[in-house]
Amino acid sequence: MIKNKPIYILGIESSCDDTSAAVICNGKILSNVVANQEIHAKYGGVVPELASRAHQQNIVPVIQQAIQQANIDKKDLNAIAFTRGPGLMGSLLVGTSFAKSLSLALNIPLIAVNHMQGHVLAHFIEEENQQKPPFPFLCLTISGGHTQIVKINNYFEMEVIGETIDDAVGEAFDKSAKILGLPYPGGPLIDKYAKLGNSKAFKFTKPKVDELNFSFSGLKTGILYFIQKKTKESPTFIEENLNDICASIQHTIVEILFDKLKNAVKQTGIKHIAIAGGVSANSEIRKALKATENKFGWTTYIPKFEYTTDNAAMIAIVGYLKYLNGSFLEEPTSATARLKVSER
Ligand code: KG4
Ligand code: ZN
Known about the structure:
Bound molecules: 5'-O-[(R)-(carboxyoxy)(hydroxy)phosphoryl]adenosine, zinc ion
Order of helices and strands: EEEHEHEHEEEHHHHEHEH
């Protein structure tokens, strides 16, 4: 192989409610276009049928924009990487079918990517002032659909050592926000209001769950009963205390996450700790992770903000790593709604 020969990969992500396309060249992101679907806000959550329709509308312009912004021609592409799963079936099918047809038209290989591996491997995108974690490291992968502590042995060998037994942490944020009358997705709003509030104002019970597993459904019910009781006593309770309620909810969630993460470090002896997934955008989680450097001597890895919530840059980096590894899709594959982080 000629040294430094540019390898261009197009990444396509369409697993949930964001249509995204990115171009990567030798590990560096040249473009990362994300079209959010605002349509879901008025329904209080993602409506799968509307999501796949919006993907159909967005996919062509989003890909065109990504190629344009990268300043290349589609004929320069060496391969196409797409999210195979996990995610919503209808949404995945849009990205998968488009990737397949484009690879046929351009006569270039296809690379199937596991969305959860994408969240983790976003840490390997070439960025200035961004350290890459050494193997093995632990990754707290927190999104709207997942909450896991994953031991990353190498790029493609990942072991889940703890996970939620019910709701994901993103759901805990979004459902709590819904109880407070905030629109979907409520996670970023709780983060915003929490900055102005007192995190010790209200106390919520933390769940007791075995080993390194998590549970968030009890917390959500606890918050619901608390709010029902308080608004009965005073109908303006939420309005008057929104910042304090958000800060207290967020603080409880952060404590639940970090109690388990500390145990995971104790059990494995691994002190290189990364966070990934949409919820890793949360400011208190980022602060709490950074604080462990002085407190416990951990080395921490926090992704750039734009690589936390769903994006195609993270799919493109996995595509690039698989390209170097020669892991192309030789047999036809279809979208897979359920896919473990350890599966390719
Ligand atoms: O990874 P992601 O974009 O999609 C999934 O794969 O699920 O994660 C979306 C989740 C949503 O639940 C959203 O509320 C949450 O990430 N989220 C946040 C923040 N930004 C996004 N949660 C708390 N604080 C934030 N700043
Ligand atoms: Zn995700």
